[in-house]
Amino acid sequence: MFLEIILFLALLALLTISSWKPARMPPGTFCWPILGELPPRSIPITEYLKNLKQKRGPIFTTKWGSHRIVVVTDYNLIKKAFNHPDIQGRPGFFSLELLNNCKNAGVIHSHGSVWTENRRFLLRHLRDLGMGKTALEGSIQQEAEMLVDHLDKNCVGKPAAMNHSINCAVLNVIWQMLASKRYDIKDKMMHRYIALIDEDMNIIQGILFIIDVFPWLAKVLPSFIMNKVFKVDVLYRNRDEAQSMFKQVIDDHMATLDPNNPRDVIDQLLLERAHRDAPDYLTPEDEVDVLAIISDSFAAGSETTSSTLRWMILYMAINPEIQAKVHKRLDEVVPNDRLPSLNDRNQLQYVDAMLLEVMRLSSFVPIGMLHTATAEVTFEGYDIPKVNLI
Fold first, then answer.
1. What one-character-per-residue DSSP string does 255-296 give?
2. How far apart are CA 300 and CA 199, in angstroms?
3. Where are the domains of the chain?
4. Alpha-carbon span 277 to 293, nearest angstrom
5. Dmax over Cα atoms in the chain, in whole Å?
6. What is the per-residue burial (b if ≥16 Cβ within 10 Å, else e) of 217-236?
7. Does domain 116-318 have CATH number 1.10.630.10?
């Protein structure tokens, strides 16, 4: 009995010591062993962090489960931190490792030189293909017309779920840049891909959050519990199915690739990655990276735009007087025989202001992308250990 008590006290002491933070880290308070300082579910995470900021200052330390996190809340300090060369890593969360095949690939979850090169490549070629320019207007206008026509035929005068319709329109614009393709709103593959994304997000933001916060559970829990409770087998299956869809598109591009006339981002990727002696062949490493870049482009582009549109529709519905003013201004500026274009933007300041206010109010991404320190860092007089989350 005495030995058991000694072992228990020793374990408790180790857990308590592990919850301490190094002396020169940003200010923080006592965290419970194992649990840390998990935010309550009763208030929004932004309010919780704002309360901690008032007590501890613009840079402070907290601990969620096994992860010690340095929180930066000042705009200028955030810019400075995320431009620091040693704060460019990505967290090794269980869910992210699973979706990315445990590879340093793509754009969203990559780090170091892979992130730098892939991001530079993607931005360069997306701009060449019209991102942020009038060259993309034709595709956006086509999808807008198709979306309005679909909503007019199926959603007028009755409650309707618009998620799929909006997602499909946004994904088609991205598909046009990436793969020179578009899908009908009733297309089975489009339906299936959107369903995969929705299911994955529900799992990751739901029960799997526990494994991300306490990653050691993945090493001790048997596989049947990981699958039954945390739906890990569903994520594996969905990942493989989505990658199979993208792989088919890549194979089609390889079969029709013209080095002198690249059509889209996938063609540019293949031309850059394919071997000179075998232009129709990608190494397994290159294939993983190409698949990750395509997947990340969809994830980053579709969800942000779709969420903004859904929030806009909601706010317009509950603020009909604002909706009427927006409608009136569009009628004044845009002739009935054409759709709005970027050339009209200078005369549509009220519409611009409405969109900015929607993004401010909704704030559907309240916390920036988590980073990790790739080396020991001194930032604003504080020491941040390697691998610490920021």
1. HT--TTS--SHHHHHHHHHSBTTBTT---HHHHHHHHHHHHH
2. 17
3. 2-89+371-384, 116-318
4. 24
5. 88
6. bbeeeeeeebeeebbbebbe
7. yes
Q: How many residues does the chain have?
A: 390
SS3 per-residue string spanning the chain: CHHHHHHHHHHHHHHHHHHCCCCCCCCCCCCECCCECCCCCCCCHHHHHHHHHHHHCCEEEEEECCEEEEEECCHHHHHHHHCCCCCCECCCCHHHHHHCCCCCCCCCCCCHHHHHHHHHHHHHHHHHCCCCCHHHHHHHHHHHHHHHHHHHHHCCCCCCCCHHHHHHHHHHHHHHHHHCCCCCCCCHHHHHHHHHHHHHHHHHCCCCHHHHHCCCHHHHCCHHHHHHCCCHHHHHHHHHHHHHHHHHHHHHHHHCCCCCCCCCHHHHHHHHHCECCECCCCCHHHHHHHHHHHHHHHHHHHHHHHHHHHHHHHHHHHCHHHHHHHHHHHHHHCCCCCCCCHHHHHHCHHHHHHHHHHHHHHCCCCCCCCCECCCCEEECCEEECCCCEC
Rounded to 10 degrees, the C-alpha dihedral 266/269/270/276 comes to 160
Q: In the numeric block, which tokens belong to residue 273?
A: 């990655």
Q: What is the full per-residue pLDDT of the chain (390 aa) written as tens digits?
A: 555 566 545 554 444 545 555 668 888 777 777 777 877 777 888 888 888 888 898 999 888 888 888 999 888 999 998 888 888 888 888 888 887 776 777 777 777 778 788 888 887 877 776 665 556 788 888 888 988 888 888 887 888 888 888 988 888 888 888 888 888 888 888 888 888 888 888 888 888 888 888 888 888 889 888 888 889 999 999 999 988 998 898 888 888 888 888 888 888 888 887 655 455 566 777 778 888 888 888 777 777 888 889 999 999 999 999 999 999 999 999 998 889 988 899 999 999 999 999 988 887 777 778 888 888 988 888 888 887 888
pTM of the model: 0.81
d(CA 284, CA 282): 6
Q: Which amino acid is at 372?
A: T
Q: What tokens does 4 get?
A: 């058991």
Which residues on adjacent β-strands are paired with residue 379?
Answer: 382
